[in-house]
Description:
Helices cover 40% and strands 23% of the residues. By secondary structure, the chain is an alpha/beta fold.
Amino acid sequence: MKRHFDDIQLGSIELFCLAAEAGSFSAAALEAGVTPAAVSRSISRLEERLAVRLFVRTTRSIRLTEAGRAYFEQCRQALTQLIEAEREAMGKQSQAAGTLRLSLPTTYGHHRILPLLPLFRARHPDVKVDIHLSNRNIDFVSEGYDMAIRVRALPDSGLIARHLEDAALVVVATKSYLAAKGTPVTLDDLALHDCIQFELPSSGRRIPWLFLDQDKELEILAQGGYCLSEDVLGGVTLAKNGAGLFQTYRFVVEKELQSGELVQVLTPYQGRSRPFTLLYPHNRHIPLRLRAFIDFLMEYRAVWATQ
Length: 307
């Protein structure tokens, strides 16, 4: 393999990543144990070598350019792999370590994964967890994520998919709403109610409600005075405050159903679910921190299947 970098160039890349993460040359210098002027000179040499501007500089702050952000994501991932390779070569990878970057949907993040993270870190205290809560699809390579959880697997041959659970769906409302508007008995009754809808931000498509009618799978585009996007948990908040009916995952509203804060309706038509899948890149070398987290989640699959 032809040599592309010397120690100075690799050091410049590391200082660039420190500055990008910290948001200032001074903070990067403090972290690296050098002067801010040394950081500035190093990054200037890097920009000259690449013939591209990496930062927009002002007297008080720095900000990554579009090219700088793309370069940073690639460099951060490459440096992480180098660090892990060194640890493995030196026999120091008996314990999971480093930063685990997760992309989680809001519902599954709040109600399934986030409550478990303190237990995971108690087992693996050298692993830091960087969490991104969003329902959008991500690019593992350019954004540097180790793992994502999504509804259904994505059609990407570069990803490994592990099934987590089929999450049961329920339709809920408050007792006060049902007292005022009546309790729906059939699916046709939905036309008489305020049905809180969720819209996919990527496409603007409204998510249909899923039902099972005598073994026949049905999809209904419910109508009402409320439509949400981005955070589906807003629908639960609206329902809990008497806004109308909402279809969501049972695990999201289990406590409210048990306490009576919410009531399930249309139970003869329940039985539908959506699958949640764990996704990670198909790499020959899987970091120990990721292997440890996957094994940790697999422990809970049987528990989730009963909830």
